[in-house]
Amino acid sequence: MSEKATTVQDVARTAGVSTATVSRALSTPDKVSERTREVVFKAVEQTGYRVNRAARNLRTQRSNTALVILPDLSNPFFSEILEGISDHLSGTGYSMLVAGMTQIRDSGERLIDYLNDGRADGMIVLDGSLPQDAISSLTAPTHRDKIVFACEWTNQADFPSVRSRNRQGARDAIRHLYDLGHRKIGHITGPEGNVLSLERRDGAVAELTGLGIAPRAEWVIPAGFSLPDGRKAAQRFLKLKDRPTAIFCASDIQAIALISELQRHDIRVPNDLSVVGFDDIEMAEFVTPALTTIRQDRFQLGYAAAVLLMECISKDSSRDYAQIHQIPTNLVPRDSTAPLLP
Amino acid sequence: MSEKATTVQDVARTAGVSTATVSRALSTPDKVSERTREVVFKAVEQTGYRVNRAARNLRTQRSNTALVILPDLSNPFFSEILEGISDHLSGTGYSMLVAGMTQIRDSGERLIDYLNDGRADGMIVLDGSLPQDAISSLTAPTHRDKIVFACEWTNQADFPSVRSRNRQGARDAIRHLYDLGHRKIGHITGPEGNVLSLERRDGAVAELTGLGIAPRAEWVIPAGFSLPDGRKAAQRFLKLKDRPTAIFCASDIQAIALISELQRHDIRVPNDLSVVGFDDIEMAEFVTPALTTIRQDRFQLGYAAAVLLMECISKDSSRDYAQIHQIPTNLVPRDSTAPLLP
DNA sequence: CTGAAAGCGCTAACAT
DNA sequence: ATGTTAGCGCTTTCAG
């Protein structure tokens, strides 16, 4: 028993103007005389009119919607990035469609379809590990201007992207430990093949080398970003004969799980071991000891990605690709690092 | 220089049939002869055709999109619920639009517009504190069948909803502490006015009372769900002259922050104080001591909400409202609770 | 089972 | 500055 929604026709009738005028008054108010504008607005209010997006989308060939692709919807790491994205999008009248790669794969959909079938005007990809076929379809000239990577990225194509200064962040972490007197410094890596893992590891190695410290292979412990990975890394650490006095972890949650597991084995942080994380998740400040970490501004990351995407979409001129925006990171010293005891 | 997308027309031409037949072959394959179906499918493949959603949406007056409303996009608590929702939606060909109430408010949009203007066919609301005017507009007969609450809910209208057995969960927490010998049991509440806070507090009080323990007002510490709230609660706790030997927290992150802060003041958990949380976030298992908590199945919560929404949307018969689906919770005993020492 | 034709509601030429 | 008109691409009566 749904009463018919009001249309431009209704508004036009009540306002005593043509539908075209109504449309103009709404989307390009300056192309209409002040008087008509008022009349139309009044009619809109009276009738409670709302433009029908489906109709507008069909006509304009735009959806005013952006798709955000996460590797994994359940990963809480992305929430703040989402907020940053949404914050800018909603300000520009865009809606945010969110999908996880797991679900996309399972449902047999293709990313490119969202762009082709009019569901989204562009997309922000937070997953640096898209399957090869997805990437190559997205690099088609029709689409490449509608895609922006954020946080992670892919080296297999030169999409514009927004990312943290991962390498510099890693260097800062190592430098911090060095300045505290540590010389035996280890690193727990992120997942193998992940771009972030690589950057952070390379940054750490570069800084160590620059400081005249030869990185020791057994102190670079391969892991992943997750909590279980941190725990496993701790177990590997415990088996080391000669242990480092400081560790740089590729992620905060990994660091938190590592510390927790080490504490169970009576290794005290920071007394026995200094630990630096990466991310500065909210929890970092609230664990004991509070975690020293490299902060990345996830809100900003998302926000900048949204800005960049909107630029890409709107810009008609041919663009320079491989635009990379880097968001600064910064060291947040807390209680999980301490000067090396003599 | 975007080459024109292929349309039904193109497919119809290559298949040598009418556009109507193509449409039928695609959406209602059984209403078409086997031969034609094959021909059409082949043509679709050849041309790389994809239905244009904007056109379909306009024509069918459906968007095949659901809107999910979070109170706060940056809150990581919701990610797993989102995954549950998306998991079901994507299986039914629906897309997921996500928005945070903060952004909605800031952009001056109204929730109801999403339903009216054809952006969404229905919505899942995870925010029990919608403004009054939003709620009343949503209760209009045209819309009430398109809305489902999940996790939180509102008492100001009888929308169908999916929620955890918060009250029972709270009772289980108290009972667990009681069974460990505790008689001096406190509670850190969630934010005032929040439906979850109320249920959990009421459940705790009811169980205490049932066990013959009179709840003590100073042991019910008002707080919120967040990390800072947990820390503040710890500070309140420290000021107590006569302290409880066990505490039930309204959320895990609150409990984690509380324990962390207490540890700094040399209160040992579980030796000096047993703590039970609520939620079973992934971190709960990885803090020290591992947190005893009441698990709510957030994936399931989201999944069930999506199922319920799809039912509501598709069902044409008049429905029984106020349908409430309750998801069981369960106690996960870990190391933050221990028998009361004599 | 299939085709012809109308039209969802809007905007953008084009004409005035 | 405003109105007329066509048509975005699809689905769905209605005929056949």
Automatic annotation (TrEMBL), chains A, B:
It holds the Pfam family Peripla_BP_3. The keyword Transcription regulation applies. Residues 6-60 form the HTH lacI-type domain. The keyword Metal-binding does not apply. Coiled coil: none annotated. It comes from the Bacteria. GO terms for molecular function: DNA-binding transcription factor activity; transcription cis-regulatory region binding. Keywords: DNA-binding, Transcription, Transcription regulation. InterPro entries: HTH_LacI (IPR000843), LacI/GalR-like_sensor (IPR046335), Lambda_DNA-bd_dom_sf (IPR010982), Peripla_BP_I (IPR028082). PANTHER family: HTH-TYPE TRANSCRIPTIONAL REGULATOR GALS (PTHR30146:SF109), LACI-RELATED TRANSCRIPTIONAL REPRESSOR (PTHR30146). This is Transcriptional regulator, LacI family. It comes from Epibacterium ulvae.
